[in-house]
């Protein structure tokens, strides 16, 4: 049997780079191995520019605006040839960050001239440990992935859910608590609850800090100070990190502590879990007949049962959200730990960030497509409401309690009287109205309950939808 590992072009091992590539491809620009190397190139270039601009090493000339632009063009034009060259260098160095340093030193003479290149080349990776470059690279990568790819999709799905909530704000729905018929609500209000929960998590994610450091092998600026004692290296470090759009972390070991990553991944995982809740609820509404999946009927629901339209978008989303959460959880719990001043556990662990976000992004794509294919079925919801008149026992006994508290006679034991009527059996509208007429309620209250139906007993549910405040794009 022919080995599939020998097939060209290479076959993807994982689903994200194979079957689902189209849904997650935008993350490649931010969280792939190639994106990591491009970010490293960027950080090394910006460090060189910064050192010469602020005069951190006296006697070294500043780079001209044109030289700076040419250096930054290396990042802008980073592509397949550069990826291959870095891979070739790394095979010699057996060190990925050192390969980036040598890669840039090859290009420097053509930009600054041969005479100056020898000296300026020594400021590439000056006083840096690999983690100085890596932590800043990952911060920029994750920040870009969240802001440019994941967050826009998450916000769009949240707005889609909010729009569904507003469209269905008045649609009566028999609620179920503990799987049993309960106080009616509206379908819109229930989706508004989920949109509201997701919106809160997006606001937390929007407020996330992305930290960085550049302070040497154990976070002491030891090499910096001994090499150039007259420079304020703390100020140089802070200004450089902040110039990248990151928040400076003044106290670290060799690694930036990754606490911000743990915070972010916990929030994204919580968003995932709320979205998972939406998937299971929507799946259940579909199974109850409250939604029909009638759009996009070119699809095949079952390979053998022609009548079926399976809720596969929501099931697929559930699975991918679970995978994403598992990865985000282990990232959050592992990255905050490091033995003494440094171990390499985080290095391997962080290479799974893209996979964690990829499965979440794939789930968002499925949820968006699943929601777009739903049509509510008011008749099915009305039928369930009409079959459960006993849910009106709650407002009737509550009204009797209020009347009893005011001293109205004949209102004794309201809960027990409604319990005797409704518990363990179905009643009809006629049964309930006959019961109401025998309660001795004030005329206005009696008329209110004679007119009440399960469909109209939705309280303030439609109005509550107005409290939705969904983040913008």
UniProtKB/TrEMBL annotation:
The keyword Transcription regulation does not apply. Pathway: Purine metabolism; IMP biosynthesis via de novo pathway; 5-amino-1-(5-phospho-D-ribosyl)imidazole-4-carboxamide from 5-amino-1-(5-phospho-D-ribosyl)imidazole-4-carboxylate: step 2/2; Purine metabolism; AMP biosynthesis via de novo pathway; AMP from IMP: step 2/2. It comes from Metallococcus carri. This is Adenylosuccinate lyase. One of its GO terms (biological process) is IMP biosynthetic process. Its EC number is 4.3.2.2. Belongs to the lyase 1 family. Adenylosuccinate lyase subfamily. It is an enzyme of class 4 (lyase). It catalyses: (2S)-2-[5-amino-1-(5-phospho-beta-D-ribosyl)imidazole-4-carboxamido]succinate = 5-amino-1-(5-phospho-beta-D-ribosyl)imidazole-4-carboxamide + fumarate; N(6)-(1,2-dicarboxyethyl)-AMP = fumarate + AMP. Residues 18-317 form the Fumarate lyase N-terminal domain. Residues 338-458 form the Adenylosuccinate lyase PurB C-terminal domain. Keywords: Lyase, Purine biosynthesis. It comes from the Bacteria. GO terms for molecular function: N6-(1,2-dicarboxyethyl)AMP AMP-lyase (fumarate-forming) activity. NCBIfam families: PRK09285.1, purB. Pfam families: ASL_C, Lyase_1. The keyword Lyase applies. InterPro entries: Fumarase/histidase_N, Fumarate_lyase_CS, Fumarate_lyase_fam, Fumarate_lyase_N, L-Aspartase-like, Pur_lyase, PurB_bact, PurB_C. Catalyzes two reactions in de novo purine nucleotide biosynthesis. Catalyzes the breakdown of 5-aminoimidazole- (N-succinylocarboxamide) ribotide (SAICAR or 2-[5-amino-1-(5-phospho-beta-D-ribosyl)imidazole-4-carboxamido]succinate) to 5-aminoimidazole-4-carboxamide ribotide (AICAR or 5-amino-1-(5-phospho-beta-D-ribosyl)imidazole-4-carboxamide) and fumarate, and of adenylosuccinate (ADS or N(6)-(1,2-dicarboxyethyl)-AMP) to adenosine monophosphate (AMP) and fumarate.
């Amino acid at each position: 049997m022919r080995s599939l590992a020998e097939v060209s072009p290479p076959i993807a091992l994982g689903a994200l780079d194979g079957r689902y590539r189209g849904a997650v491809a935008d993350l490649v620009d931010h969280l792939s191995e190639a994106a990591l190397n491009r970010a490293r190139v960027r950080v090394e270039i910006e460090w060189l520019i910064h050192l010469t601009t602020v005069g951190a090493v006296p006697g070294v000339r500043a780079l001209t605006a044109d030289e700076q632009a040419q250096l930054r063009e290396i990042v802008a034009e980073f592509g397949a040839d550069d990826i291959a060259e870095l891979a070739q260098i790394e095979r010699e160095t057996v060190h990925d960050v050192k390969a980036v340093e040598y890669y840039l030193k090859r290009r420097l003479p053509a930009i600054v001239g041969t005479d100056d290149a020898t000296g300026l080349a020594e400021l590439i990776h000056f006083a840096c440990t690999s983690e100085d470059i890596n932590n800043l690279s990952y911060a920029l990568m994750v920040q870009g992935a969240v802001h440019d790819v994941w967050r826009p999709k998450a916000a769009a799905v949240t707005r889609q859910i909010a729009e569904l909530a507003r469209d269905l704000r008045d649609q009566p729905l028999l609620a179920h608590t503990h799987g049993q018929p309960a106080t009616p609500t509206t379908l819109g209000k229930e989706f508004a609850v989920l949109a509201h929960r997701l919106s809160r998590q997006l606001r937390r994610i929007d407020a996330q800090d992305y930290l960085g450091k550049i302070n040497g092998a154990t976070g002491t600026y030891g090499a910096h100070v001994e090499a150039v004692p007259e420079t304020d290296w703390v100020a140089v470090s802070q200004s450089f990190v902040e110039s990248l759009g990151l928040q400076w972390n003044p106290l670290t070991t060799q690694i930036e502590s990754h606490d911000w990553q743990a915070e972010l991944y916990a929030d994204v995982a919580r968003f995932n879990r709320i979205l998972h809740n939406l998937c299971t609820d929507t799946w259940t509404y579909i199974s109850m007949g409250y939604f029909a999946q009638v759009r996009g009927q070119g699809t095949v629901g079952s390979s053998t049962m022609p009548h079926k339209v399976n809720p596969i978008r929501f099931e697929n989303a559930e699975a991918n959200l679970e995978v994403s959460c598992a990865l985000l959880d282990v990232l959050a719990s592992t990255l905050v730990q490091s033995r003494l001043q440094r171990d390499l556990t985080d290095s391997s662990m962080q290479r799974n960030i893209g996979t964690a976000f990829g499965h979440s992004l794939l789930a968002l794509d499925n949820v968006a497509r699943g929601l777009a294919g739903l049509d509510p079925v008011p008749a099915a919801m009305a039928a369930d409401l009409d079959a459960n008149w006993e849910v009106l026992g709650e407002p009737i006994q509550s009204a009797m309690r209020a009347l009893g508290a005011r001293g109205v006679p004949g209102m004794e034991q309201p809960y027990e009287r409604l319990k005797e009527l409704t518990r363990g059996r179905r009643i009809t509208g006629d049964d309930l109205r006959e019961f109401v007429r025998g309660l001795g309620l004030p005329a206005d209250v009696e008329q209110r309950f004679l007119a009440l139906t399960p469909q109209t007993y939705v309280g303030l549910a439609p109005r509550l939808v107005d409290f939705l405040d969904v983040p913008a794009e």
